[in-house]
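Figure 6 in text form: structure in, sequence out.
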């Protein structure tokens, strides 16, 4: 029994072909949108590539770019097919192509769905890349004279100012690294020497943060040094001065930013998938209804269209039998001691040649 059988008159078939022609061209536009979204996400990731560890997080934008380009090609071909199928006599030129086209488009729509799910599943990998990348960038913050790291300080400062964040998980991360270059330390001062000697690695660690961590909304001048020392500043309480510095860590700020982008893109891709699936369903109905018209021989007659000619169970069983039969064709009959030539018939009289003379036997050594 056919799945979702629908009866089509000639007028309905023509209208269906016309509507599908328009929808396929709209799908070409959605393909351009997918391509643009993938390109946008790739650019946004590359903007802050220095702040991310080398993780394979480019696969999502790359897939969106590829899916967008494929969508343009597939739907352009689909529009041409549907345009010709308005005239049922022109269907003959596409008859052998439509079923492979539908199968390929089905797998393509599945890839679109995978792309939407990947946008939602990218968060954990992005968080790991940001955690490692920001830690590395903060460690190189002081190396403004080292080739390849000259602009890390500027990148981190601009990040903290733009996203109103401080440190990796918070401003206390700056307490654990030396972010002031040794060239700016006065080693003649006892306080500096004591700090360098107090650390096993000889680092200059302080309870201070870079200027870019300062909260511009603070009612008092920013306190960057001796943040945890209440007595070092007038009318200052370390635990209650939340407006002095940005409280949010840059990892969380960037993660929220990229998550918002990916969720928006994922929703767009999901809507595109539903739209592509509806177009594919219409093309399938058009194909089956036109094939039934050819069987009837009357282009003006009514015809049935369906998604599957048989039920899901019967279709699955038929496909499994086809796969099994293909497997049996490649097997050799080993029923007679594994000799595939055992059943070759032999004649009672051997014919050795034109003179029917047997060849000389090779003597066997005694």
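Output sequence:
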């Amino acid at each position: 029994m056919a799945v979702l059988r629908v009866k089509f008159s000639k007028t309905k078939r023509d209208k269906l072909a016309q509507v599908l022609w328009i929808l396929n061209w709209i799908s070409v536009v959605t393909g351009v949108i997918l391509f643009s979204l993938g390109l946008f996400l790739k650019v946004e990731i590359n903007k802050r590539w220095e702040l991310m560890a080398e993780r394979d997080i480019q696969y999502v934008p790359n897939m969106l770019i590829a899916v967008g380009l494929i969508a343009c090609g597939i739907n352009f071909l689909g529009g041409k097919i549907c345009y010709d199928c308005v005239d049922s006599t022109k269907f003959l030129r596409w008859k052998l192509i439509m079923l492979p086209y539908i199968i390929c488009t089905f797998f393509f729509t599945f890839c679109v769905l995978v792309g939407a799910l990947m946008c939602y599943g990218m968060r954990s990998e992005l968080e790991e890349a940001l955690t490692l990348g920001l830690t590395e960038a903060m460690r190189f913050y002081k190396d403004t004279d080292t080739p390849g790291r000259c602009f890390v300080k500027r990148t981190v400062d601009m990040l903290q100012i733009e996203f109103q964040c401080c440190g990796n998980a918070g401003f206390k991360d700056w307490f654990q690294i030396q972010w002031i270059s040794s060239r700016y330390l006065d080693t003649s001062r006892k306080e500096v020497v004591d700090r360098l000697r107090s650390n096993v690695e000889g680092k200059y660690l302080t309870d201070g943060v870079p200027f870019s961590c300062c909260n511009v909304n603070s009612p008092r001048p920013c306190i960057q040094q001796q943040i945890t020392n209440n007595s070092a500043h007038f009318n200052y309480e370390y635990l209650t001065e939340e407006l002095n510095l940005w409280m949010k860590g840059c990892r969380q700020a960037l993660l929220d930013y990229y998550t918002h982008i990916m969720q928006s893109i994922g929703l767009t891709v999901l809507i595109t998938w539903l739209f592509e699936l509806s177009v594919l369903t219409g093309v399938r109905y058009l194909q089956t209804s036109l094939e039934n018209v050819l069987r009837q021989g009357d282009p003006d007659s009514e015809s049935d269209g369906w998604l599957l000619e048989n039920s899901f169970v019967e279709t699955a069983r038929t496909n499994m039998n086809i796969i099994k039969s293909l497997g049996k064709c490649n097997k050799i009959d080993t029923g007679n001691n594994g000799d595939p030539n055992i059943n070759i018939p032999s004649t009672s009289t051997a014919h050795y040649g034109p003179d029917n003379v047997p060849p000389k036997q090779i003597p066997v050594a005694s």
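Caption detail: Confidence is low (pLDDT under 50) at residues 346-350.
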